[in-house]
Specification:
The protein is mostly helical and about 270 residues long. The chain folds into two domains: about 110 residues, Alpha Horseshoe (Serine Threonine Protein Phosphatase 5, Tetratricopeptide repeat); about 130 residues, Tetratricopeptide repeat domain (Serine Threonine Protein Phosphatase 5, Tetratricopeptide repeat, Alpha Horseshoe). It contains twelve helices and two strands; from the N terminus they run ββαααααααααααα. A two-stranded antiparallel sheet has the order 1-2. A hairpin with a 2-residue loop joins strand 1 and strand 2.
């Protein structure tokens, strides 16, 4: 990869900006000017689709913001750098030239980790970063590592109902992709439990119905014995059948057809 784009030698410009940060006799480094120059160069690299160079520029800008004591600015630059490194990793994979060392992925994760270290523990951005990483790892087909970040997002979204439900839905989908149907069943069951004692609005009713349908299909796949069938699962099964498995399969087909066509009102 070269550092030239549109008549600019990006690496040379990067070095010139860096000289502004060198200490000189009786003269303080012009950190503010260097920060602005790094962000301008970073935006240029993004425009010409050179995400790795953009990532380098945003890291440099983050260092400047940190030295100026601007924690929000530092965090923002670190996250933007992570976006660019992750974008480069995903693009390389799509082109079939993914590096064995996955240096862009590691750089992205390092930036995300550094950004999180600058946030307060209660900041909602922690969950957002976890979900961003999970989404990117899904695009990289790394479903196992995705699970780790989704579980962390669930743990730290304990006091936000809809965020927690969203994270659990993603975890359920991830588990199904990995053919881990037991974990998927646990996730949708937790969503049902979360919605059990809250008022059923339109959105909540739709989520609940979707989870119950998913729960039925997962139970059909897992085929738990009567001894392992919990009272909650038995109650869900009774909602759609009187105990005949063939009848249950027919009703699941009926449910599936109406859910996919949007005619969910016929199921109520």
């Amino acid at each position: 990869m070269t550092g030239e784009s549109g008549g600019f030698d990006i690496l040379e410009i990067y070095k010139q900006i860096s000289t502004k940060l060198k200490k000189r006799f009786l003269r303080k480094p012009n950190v503010t000017d260097a920060c602005e120059s790094f962000t301008t160069l970073g935006r240029h690299c993004e425009t010409v689709e050179m995400p790795v160079y953009a990532g380098m520029c945003w890291i440099a800008a983050a260092r400047c913001e940190g030295s100026l004591g601007n924690v929000p600015g530092e965090t923002s630059c670190l996250i933007r750098s992570a976006h660019n490194f992750m974008s480069a990793q995903i693009k390389n994979k799509s082109l079939g030239c993914q590096s064995v060392a996955t240096e862009n992925l590691q750089a992205a994760l390092g930036c995300y980790t550094h950004a999180r270290s600058r946030l307060q523990e209660t900041c909602a951005l922690h969950t957002g970063i976890d979900l961003e990483i999970a989404e990117s790892l899904t695009k990289l087909n790394d479903n196992l590592t995705t699970e780790m970040y989704l579980k962390d997002a669930i743990d730290i979204s304990e006091y936000s109902l809809y965020t927690r439900i969203h994270c659990l839905q993603l975890l359920s989908s991830n588990a199904i992709e990995r053919s881990d149907y037991s974990s998927a069943l646990d996730a949708v069951t937790e969503i049902i439990n979360l919605l059990k004692d809250v008022p059923k609005t339109g959105v909540r009713s739709d989520i609940l119905l979707n989870c119950e349908v998913t729960q039925i299909f997962l139970l059909l796949i897992l085929k738990p014995s009567h001894q392992k069938l919990t009272p909650q699962f038995a109650k869900t099964l009774e909602k759609f059948t009187w105990g005949d498995m063939n009848d249950l399969k027919l009703k699941c087909k009926f449910i599936y057809e109406h859910v996919t066509t949007g005619s969910t009102h016929l199921l109520l």
